[in-house]
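This section describes the prediction task in plain terms. A model, or a person checking by hand, is given the sequence of a single protein chain and must write out its three-dimensional structure as a string of tokens. No templates, partner chains or ligands are provided. The sample shown here is typical of the held-out split.
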Amino acid sequence: MTDHSAAPRVRGERDRAAESTLASRVQGTVRIVGAGLLGSSIGHALTALDIDVALDDTSPAQLRLAVDYGAGRLAAAADDPSLIVVAVPPDVTADVIERELAQHPNAVVTDVASVKLEPLRTLRERGVDLTHYIGSHPLAGRERGGAISARADIFVGRPWVVCRDEDTPAADLALVEGLALDLGATPLEMTPEDHDRAVALVSHVPQLVASLLAGRFVDAPDGSLRLAGQGVRDTTRIAASAPELWVQILGANAAPVVDVLDALADDLSTVADALRAPEAPGSRRAVADTIRRGNDGVERLPGKHGQNRRFDQVVVMVDDTPGQLGRLFGDLGELEVNVEDFRLEHSPGAQFGLAEISVVPGAVRRAVDGLEARGWKIASTTND
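The expected answer:
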């Protein structure tokens, strides 16, 4: 694989429109090896598009569960897949890719492992012909794994990294990118090296930070935990992830993760030193600079979950009774207020929750006035 530009190239609408007349999206049989969260989710999404999905997994129970839930059918020896998606744990990804390339020489093989360089190095060292292999990675998932947690929509609007080189046949590239597009994702081209450095920062280290913070709760007094609000839940949500999988992911991407952890440790040390002597010259500035740099970083995050200034928040009190959220969304629909983002925080010991609704700034007044007229109590808005 050869180096591309360090920055990922996002495939724009013009690119897609031009290629749509030259290459179709996924057709024929798609073989998915690995019926866990990602494999089954891909299966559900493709099945919904009437694509023949053949599932395989080393675990008969997991495989049967995925089939029972409608992610595809059992793979058969006579299958002649056009595309093979390898969705297995990182420690066996290279082995399965090698096997699938040998058993299905006419198929394009991709994998969805969250680490791209280590499997590629292993395959190259073994001398495997990688002409019809394209590594890829959808930046999507859930903190819970397995076929039972799979959802067809987890890829919608998410980046899907594609790692190809100059020897990749155009038709093979179109097929893998077509898979991403069919599932509602946005293909981006990156080198394996750039991908692994990127996910170390935005995925792998956040997992460790969430786990380390949540680990402090183990010995915390119950009274302290009863004070936990949405902020701590947001920052520790992914701490519920499976340790077995993350040991493999972090081990396969250790060097880039260590680079980020070392820099983060330096930042933590700076803040800790400042707080050890909060009255010392420069201490308050060190703390303020830390918070402000965090502000700047969050504003760079794309989409609704970054502090995108296009959206304001309206916080509505919602009774903890069945049907209330449905009524709230129904009222917002009648008011022609589009919900850009949503989260619900339950108040400990209270019979109500706080629904934080993100809307475009021009819709705030219409939402507040309309909801109050319908009997809703507004707790706050970002303009308060």
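For orientation: Confidence is low (pLDDT under 50) at residues 1-7, 9-24, 304-308.
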